[in-house]
Design goal:
Distance between the termini: 42 Å
Radius of gyration: 19 Å
Number of domains: 2
Shape: globular
CATH superfamily of the largest domain: Winged helix-like DNA-binding domain superfamily/Winged helix DNA-binding domain
Strand order of the largest sheet: 1-3-2
Strand content: 5-15%
CATH topology of the largest domain: Arc Repressor Mutant, subunit A
CATH architecture of the largest domain: Orthogonal Bundle
Largest sheet: 3 strands, antiparallel
Helix content: 55-70%
Length: 152
Amino acid sequence: MSDADKPIGYWLKHLHNLIEEQFDATLGDLGLDRRQWQILNLLSGATRSRGEIEQALAPFWPDGVPRLEAALGGADALVARGWARYDGDTFSLTEEGRAAHGTAAERVGDTRRLLLRGFTPEQYAETVRILSVMAGNLEAALAGRASADKQD
């Protein structure tokens, strides 16, 4: 089977796995995994509640359930390193966390440029649009099926 004959599901899963692997290579020496980067990046914009972080990151965990304790407070995690602080139900970055975010953000930017090499901004926007339409088609179909199942 040639590359052109492989279905979109293959390419989506393959690309996802490569992105995960590249993030490990990009951030591994900083002691960050992709989920920790996502939290660090989310907190760089504002203080966030646990619920806001969980909602933002749910699509990125395999079962849709964020494991914030491991990413934020476990050994070598963001709070344990002094990069984030927890106050009641909100998390924010410390000055050390902001510095770490800056270093990681530069590397993530390099990774994004690598990923998009050969694409024009318009091609990237169209690719995202196409994927969004495909996702919307399946979401609508699944919602319709769920609605029909409830009526039965």
